[in-house]
Design goal:
Blueprint lengths: L2 E6 L4 H19 L1 E6 L12 H10 L4 E5 L3 E3 L16 E8 L2 E12 L2 H11 L10 H10 L1 E2 L5 E2 L9 E3 L17 E3 L5 H20 L3
Parallel strand pairs: 1-2, 1-3, 5-9
Antiparallel strand pairs: 3-6, 4-10, 5-6, 7-8
Helix pairs in contact: 1-5, 2-3, 3-4
Length: about 220
């Protein structure tokens, strides 16, 4: 099976990807992923976050499975493959965070199989232009496609077909401050300052390197 791990670090996020990208490389070598890390946006007329969808679509043309990780996240425990969290029926996997009485799907860490339902989903997300300037951009479009409301709060509104084929993995795969895992596999720092992210990612890289030492 051909697998790709991808991310984009454009503008200020280039500095983040320079650090987090090394943790992605450790994971990729361990689990047989190709690495596709970009330092420029792919779509000039949309907010940078939308380039994620364009890159996922591109990667799916040449791979069986695509694993996306945001540039402001680091894989601190690369011992397990997120693909192993999914059953045969699952077409994609991600974390749904629980806070403020909500359950919020977070596409900052997102694994997708190359299949018609996923390709069609990405097309529908791309075409949800009502979220072009939303604070959550493509993540808001994904939440809606899964059948959740976005405003005023995130709540399940209708059970969609794609929701039934989505695996919500343990939050250790996308540990954020508001919904942190006790033993994270991926630490993610959305909404934090550049200085905080750089310091945290640097520490995470040291952790990932220490784990990888035992494999040599």
């Amino acid at each position: 099976m051909r697998k790709v791990l991808c991310s984009i670090g454009a503008g200020p996020h280039q500095e983040l990807l320079d650090i987090s990208g090394e943790t992605f490389a450790i994971f990729a070598r361990r689990h047989g992923y190709e690495l596709d890390l970009r330092r420029e946006v792919l779509v000039a007329d949309r907010a940078p976050a939308w380039s994620k969808i364009a890159l996922l679509q591109e990667c799916l043309t040449r791979s069986d499975l695509v694993f996306w990780v945001d540039a402001d996240a680091a894989i601190v425990d690369p011992t397990l493959d997120i693909a192993d969290e999914m059953t045969r029926r699952d077409v994609m996997g991600l974390v749904a965070h629980e806070y403020d009485g909500m359950r919020v799907p977070n596409a900052g860490v997102w694994v997708l199989r190359n299949c018609r339902p996923v390709r069609r989903l990405l097309d529908r997300i791309w075409n949800r232009v009502e979220y072009l300037d939303h604070d959550w951009w493509e993540n808001a479009a994904l939440i809606r496609e899964l059948g959740f409301t976005v405003e005023p709060t995130v709540a399940l509104d209708r059970a969609t077909r794609i929701l039934g084929r989505t695996r919500f993995v343990d939050r250790s795969w996308n540990s954020i401050a508001i919904d942190a895992a006790a033993h994270p596999r991926i630490n993610h720092y959305p909404g934090r300052s550049q200085e905080h992210r750089i310091a945290a990612l640097t520490q995470d890289l040291a952790t990932a390197r220490a784990v990888a030492v035992g494999w040599k």
